[in-house]
Amino acid sequence: MMNKDTVHIQHELDIVQARQKGREISKKIAFGTVDQVRITTAISELARNIYLYAGSGDISIEEIHDGNKKGIKISAVDQGPGIADIRKVLEDGYSTSGGLGAGVPGVKRLMDDFSIDSAVGKGTAITAVKWLK
Amino acid sequence: MRIPILKLNDMLLVSIQVVLDDQSALMLKEDLLQKIHVTGAGGVVLDLTSLDIIDSFIAKVLGDMVSMAELMGAKVVITGIQPAVAITLIELGISLPNIMTALDLEKGIELLRNAVIDDE
Ligand SMILES: Nc1ncnc2c1ncn2[C@@H]1O[C@H](COP(=O)(O)OP(=O)(O)OP(=O)(O)O)[C@@H](O)[C@H]1O
Ligand SMILES: [Mg+2]
């Protein structure tokens, strides 16, 4: 059984939509309560970043398998301005919008695997995976 | 969606019962400050029992709300943060320093009563 869903992020309320999808799918995969909150919070951070910095983009949430491991993969893809200094964005407290700067480093901590691919003027793709233990 | 703010003696009670989107959070902040101003309330209990996540944006709005209310002379107690939400907040790297918290609404009201009385 595969679950894959994409939520297009363009309006602020799409962030809530993405969050609810993430909650639904992580529940279906049978993640525990704390992991469900971790996953949903990570999605919220990534969706808001798309909305704030790129204007629009997509959040995809899917169930993945690796041998007999099961997990959830979140992909956040946009064609926004991109990130010039990825190392800075990974630091706690770095924000260009007066935010707490907790989003990106927070997602990295909340999830098991994390990667950023970004090019200035082209866009950003962030992938984060959580494995069911 | 507008979140109702109830008045109980010299206290304001807010219990968030809806899915909290960004606009609703910002509106609550403004409504609450306005209500503190109009009623002269000395304390606010903000119950988050039904909040299923707190991300960095909501955390910032909550933190700002508490600092602004205190600037106006009202003490705020946050109650009912779910265990999974508390764990996630800390892992996100967010602590809500200097914010009074209590387990539930009842304990929050009690804590606030004591804090306001201590001040008088
Ligand atoms: N999708 C994106 N496209 C372009 N820039 C981005 C994107 N996501 C994040 N950034 C940049 O990285 C910085 C850090 O992001 P992060 O989410 O960690 O913090 P924040 O959004 O500024 O604040 P917070 O998430 O705590 O409210 C942002 O301020 C922004 O400059
Ligand atoms: Mg962010």
From TrEMBL, chain B:
Can you tell which superkingdom this protein's organism belongs to?
Bacteria
Q: What is the lineage of its organism?
A: Bacteria, Bacillati, Bacillota, Bacilli, Bacillales
- One Pfam match, by short name? STAS
- Domain STAS, first and last residues per copy: 1-112
Check the record and name the SUPFAM superfamilies matching this protein.
SpoIIaa-like
Protein's recorded name: RsbT antagonist protein RsbS
Q: What is the organism of origin for this protein?
A: Peribacillus deserti
Where does the signal sequence lie? none
